[in-house]
Write a structure and sequence with these properties.
homotetramer; 471 residues; alpha+beta; 16 helices; 49% helix; globular
Chain lengths: 471, 471, 471, 471
Amino acid sequence: MRTPDQYKASLRDGRRVFYRGQVVEDVTAHPVLGIAVEHAALDYAMPHDPAFRELAVSAHGWSRYFDLPASTEDLLARSRLIEAGTRQGKTVVLLVKEIGSDALFGLLALAPKLGPEVAGRVRALYERCRDEDLAMAVAQTDVKGDRSLSPSQQADPDLYLRVVERRSDGIVVRGAKIHTSVSVNANELIVLPTRAMTEADADYALAFATPLNAPGLSMVASPYLGTVHEHAAEHPLSGSHKMIETLTMFDDVFVPWERVFLCGEWQLAGELARGFVEIHRFTAISYKLPLVDALVGCGLLAARVNGLERAGHVRDKLSWLIAYAETLRALTQHAATRCKLVNGVAVPDTLVVNIAKLQFAQGLHTAMQYVQDIAGGLLVTYPASEDLEHPEYGAAIRKYLAGAGGTDGAERLRIMQLISDLTAGEYAGYHTTLAIHAEGSIEAEKLTILAQYPREEAIGYARWLAGLPPR
Amino acid sequence: MRTPDQYKASLRDGRRVFYRGQVVEDVTAHPVLGIAVEHAALDYAMPHDPAFRELAVSAHGWSRYFDLPASTEDLLARSRLIEAGTRQGKTVVLLVKEIGSDALFGLLALAPKLGPEVAGRVRALYERCRDEDLAMAVAQTDVKGDRSLSPSQQADPDLYLRVVERRSDGIVVRGAKIHTSVSVNANELIVLPTRAMTEADADYALAFATPLNAPGLSMVASPYLGTVHEHAAEHPLSGSHKMIETLTMFDDVFVPWERVFLCGEWQLAGELARGFVEIHRFTAISYKLPLVDALVGCGLLAARVNGLERAGHVRDKLSWLIAYAETLRALTQHAATRCKLVNGVAVPDTLVVNIAKLQFAQGLHTAMQYVQDIAGGLLVTYPASEDLEHPEYGAAIRKYLAGAGGTDGAERLRIMQLISDLTAGEYAGYHTTLAIHAEGSIEAEKLTILAQYPREEAIGYARWLAGLPPR
Amino acid sequence: MRTPDQYKASLRDGRRVFYRGQVVEDVTAHPVLGIAVEHAALDYAMPHDPAFRELAVSAHGWSRYFDLPASTEDLLARSRLIEAGTRQGKTVVLLVKEIGSDALFGLLALAPKLGPEVAGRVRALYERCRDEDLAMAVAQTDVKGDRSLSPSQQADPDLYLRVVERRSDGIVVRGAKIHTSVSVNANELIVLPTRAMTEADADYALAFATPLNAPGLSMVASPYLGTVHEHAAEHPLSGSHKMIETLTMFDDVFVPWERVFLCGEWQLAGELARGFVEIHRFTAISYKLPLVDALVGCGLLAARVNGLERAGHVRDKLSWLIAYAETLRALTQHAATRCKLVNGVAVPDTLVVNIAKLQFAQGLHTAMQYVQDIAGGLLVTYPASEDLEHPEYGAAIRKYLAGAGGTDGAERLRIMQLISDLTAGEYAGYHTTLAIHAEGSIEAEKLTILAQYPREEAIGYARWLAGLPPR
Amino acid sequence: MRTPDQYKASLRDGRRVFYRGQVVEDVTAHPVLGIAVEHAALDYAMPHDPAFRELAVSAHGWSRYFDLPASTEDLLARSRLIEAGTRQGKTVVLLVKEIGSDALFGLLALAPKLGPEVAGRVRALYERCRDEDLAMAVAQTDVKGDRSLSPSQQADPDLYLRVVERRSDGIVVRGAKIHTSVSVNANELIVLPTRAMTEADADYALAFATPLNAPGLSMVASPYLGTVHEHAAEHPLSGSHKMIETLTMFDDVFVPWERVFLCGEWQLAGELARGFVEIHRFTAISYKLPLVDALVGCGLLAARVNGLERAGHVRDKLSWLIAYAETLRALTQHAATRCKLVNGVAVPDTLVVNIAKLQFAQGLHTAMQYVQDIAGGLLVTYPASEDLEHPEYGAAIRKYLAGAGGTDGAERLRIMQLISDLTAGEYAGYHTTLAIHAEGSIEAEKLTILAQYPREEAIGYARWLAGLPPR
């Protein structure tokens, strides 16, 4: 298995990355992107760390992320690994192995329907990623233009990624994907369709893999959360941990056939899109656990340092936060308990996973509201860490910010900065937005819940209660 | 195991029951109480019904309700049995074995702390109930007077049940319990303390068992839900299924020592009260499942007969209802998965059970609101079932109440009456009130959640995130 | 102005009313319908009561309900009158003048578009109702069948009320209306379209007035809330106050042209439907005030008798209840403040009225949940009032139900029965269902809010904030 | 009236201000604080701008902010002025006249209780501020230490501001205030007590005014929101508009008696604290209106550019947002309508103001959640504005970010940056935190609502409904 250094070296491959209108020569050396690289490198450090080795390394010697889950126990172990990694990342998911293995499992589960040749290509990709211990990104969401229109109905045909040429040795694709996480610091990009397609959209039914330095491929990194490291002390989480999302543009990129998994088979686009998402949502609810635990912990800690542990409304909010976090944990584990095998891949219960994701997403803003309530206005009016050091008035700040139970002002300031980072600043907005839109939107989760539930059975029960015959 | 007839016969024992200011000579023959007897008798019919025998009968030949749960599997089987019984009762729990066995398990789990002699009494009670297949009620909630005062602080010393005389052969108790379910149709009444006590309240630290025809014991049955059977067609659920609650008065009732489990040991009152409640809440969340399933089923059915299955807001509400119901189911099963053994009794995870109960209670009013929304105003303006039969205009009613997909007016009327019973009438109010107050109130659940959660661990995590040392 | 007795006498006119499959010979003498008559008669008693005369009687000597509102002050006075009447009705609206005058105002406001002849018919109806001090009902909601289909698309053409014959002297109509309130005890029935129509639905674009004893017209009264008077002591509100809703069937009813306001003019159907509803919703939010006040008062009273006034969670719920009730009151008054004149009729601000209605409807279930929470389980387990009188145990009940601050058990029982009536039994379900569906559904209110808001102006503001030019 | 330049010049007075551990020599020239100065200067520009002159200038020739409101109309005009100023400030309140005049009105309303001499001092301060057109800050919130303890119970006696010496010519004060808005760019600081005091806390019952360059007074500015101007294009609101909050430390500051309003009169501390806050909350709800309007406008605009205007769930969220914003507007105006005179000052209805503030605070997180939902993930993954200008790929970004209805990619990017600033980044966190804690916390508002409501009247109504006599 690769070391962090080997991983970093692999990223210096001539990839075309832009940041704030500038070319990035070396992502590992960039002041902002470099933080994302260091963060992702934790996924390469854990297998070499005795504290995590057992969890992070497969019995086969490769990363456990590449172990195909075949049972509840496998899923629970995978979930624990994701959770442990995200805790190492201080509530920021590492993702460079998580999301790619989700995509590989999704492709493997669909393989029988793809035909033997394509199934072989999938298998080959899986083995190469596994054996070379690659970092992977997944590009799924298209830019979409007018969301009320299908791909082929858009004013500009390139608003969903499409095949523009089929050649004997491969295909040429054009278009752009958006919200592509960890693309600047992955080795392999797996591209999947974003939705079900009709026959008219056949050219948009595309799935393939490509190296990130492929000619014509360029990535424009988002500057969001790009300045917090300048004052890292005020951002105990986001100041030194981050993911980078890109607008990923394909300017007639060539993909050889051995890396193409779907090209025109519009009937399978929806199933592949959902297949990946359903597996990936289990990763998502696993990596949200360190976040919701942090909200609970911060609520409890703020109550303590503010002297509010006995206040009725504070206890009410704390019990709500605990119920919120532990419901998510229980649903995550229960989804693993109720998994089912699809072509050898243990897929967590789709209904429970989506309910977990929905409960998380619907409650996160309220959770942040409650923690802000307990913490107080200092979240947005705190003095700077530099002020603590000032020879003239630093001591006064320590004195005046002192909290309950002998909490020193410097400690209280640090706690308030943590909670500000978690619930008020850019990092909070990153999480609230991701809660709604990442790994499928809230609305998509509702549709899945409705689709997965045994509705006719429930209607039959209601009819029986009414004394009506089955229908 | 007893038959329904044997069970009914056992209730004609001279017990002192009042209903609307009248003495009830025979509860089995009373027009209202008799319905509760028939309903509870389902708990005695199921073991003799091939469809339920395996679930309802223990390997030892007694009712499975008396099997001490020793594992996750035992708890899941018990939960399934409770759920099946409640479905037979059309969303009304049967309870005459459920609640009593919960109390017995709570006493058995506490037995080591009660001393060998009392432990023997507990064991004897358990074996007698089990071997004689008795129906049991539990009286826990005192009338309480001013709830801001402790038992000994009340204006009237009898506002909590207390011992007024200790004799060589037993004790004499005075006071009253309230909200005592199934007491009019049980064989044995198990009396437990309602809360933790201080030394000043030692006379109130009482636990014992008594037959329901004990001299001085009288029960005043609540008339709530006492008229719906007069128009049973309009109340497909509550018209023929019911529980009876009583104000249970102890006018210097004598209890021999061999039936006394606590008398003055105030230090144990709280633990016994909680011990029972924690086990009983698992029963509670199990028997809520047929109710929440009914809400989902009714929502789906109403959408169908009203022609609203494609409406956006209806789909939104349906997905909410499903998430609500299935979260409760998942948490219930997960609580069994995470059980722990206490003196040989598998106790479901207290934190998860309380979160389940809280989520149920906090969402029930909204669930009813959504089902009402999908169903329509007919819930409270429907014509009578008798109107359907009228030679002159009955056919017109059928015609005008017709729904989507060829639903006949009579069928639609029946469905609306079901949903009215479930969400609008007295039975709905029964459930919404029980959700808040039964098996411990919402506020008690919040306190338990706060108490059970590993708070110091969570605070330690938050401090680590802040870069602060453990404290 | 008529007296209650004159009003009652006017109802013995041969109208065809059915209740539970039986013909009702005289609605004033019927055990259930008679309660509704007595209740509505309060609208005829108030003008003769010195306490209400100034509010209830117009300067012109007729009922103030017939005063065309022409200003904010007029609307506020009308609102106060509706509120006072509903308080007299113990939270049940009187309605026999309220709803009909709303319909008359809606017709008068639309008169210029109806043409001079029809405008004259409207004026004549208004003057007759006013001068003869008539009780009026309004039939608007059709039975609708499959709600995803328009009137002309239904499987049965009669599922919306329609004209089946146009004669020289009038028209013949067939079909049925549902949820028609106070029809059994009104003198005049005003029939309005329920929705906008297309040309294909022209035969369904109908508005007219008819006496309630017209040949072919029959009313089937709902039995909902039809038994509570049998135990009136347990239902302090609904036991002696009620409205009756009917399924109102038109079996080829003849309507002379001088009473027809719309017949085929499909372009005006939507405007008339909305015009009435918008005015009527102001009546609705006015008559909800005594209900929400009752919820606040009951919450406060329950907290007091239970000794819970200092409990943190109780204070939290009480402040929520107050904010809920007073927001509704403020919005109601503000809607009057921002009224605008339409053809001489002061129409309350539509946006504010709909927001008020929506806030009421969205919060009512929660309000009931909170009051139930403060009140306790006695809401559904209380003993009967008859028990209080029993020579043997009546005193014991008084003793054991005693509350805080010296509250006697009989008083506490009465309070619990009030709150049970208000939040748990059939009457509670009546209100929760009406909140969602009456006077236009929640979903209709949302659409109106969206339609009434100055959206382009808001978008322009957002663009300006973004630094973008107007578009 | 002063010009912006005169205002700015007045701030160069030797005040002691620190930012990030550095002395700030001239706040008007500081890269961060200077933005706050420019922003506040809008309050000095509006009177000279023909578009605002009528609203901003009193009939007496001074700033309308100094007009003592004596009627509903005065309050509505004041509210409109605050709203107009905040709109000019792109949803950031200007505050340098708003908050100080609130404090002056609060002091004037209390003047009769302060005695004639102190009343004269208050009057003198008011006239000087008015005639010299001063910018004012108010320091109210103490640092508080352990919030469960009163001022005199704290471990360190300085954790609430206190008098340490009474001299013949004045007093000497020590301690610190926190969350002091606009102090770095005001001329006069008005200091008020933060809560009711007991006799033991008499030394903490302090109110006075002081110039901001008083010896011993120092201000430590918060760095929160201190970097957004570096990328102003990504922060259309906060990039060029801001307030500064300080930790305001009093190191034995001398205050002459003619500027002291309270010193030891502990009985009046609570009334003065509340008196100011109640008036100031009306300012608060007025200046929240441009914020909630922006949320509605952004929701509508995002729906349009994303092509989502017809989606059911989007329309649902939009109607919620409108109801949220317009309820706040209606309550604000209604509070003015129901004002009452206190010593010549029209004080808006306290109950309605607090309900408005509570409704705003409780809904803001949800409002942001809904706008984020409609806007999409771009809020936190957008490319940089600099990318648009890049010769190589700028055009591609325009192409790929194109939205519905011909929206250009650059325009869509700008809109997403606006919404990100408003709902996701530091500025969003500033508003969500202020909603909970500024101008009195949510919990304080609940207590006020409970205190202001006519509770006995409501209980009397409930008793009457129950048929019980008054008590």
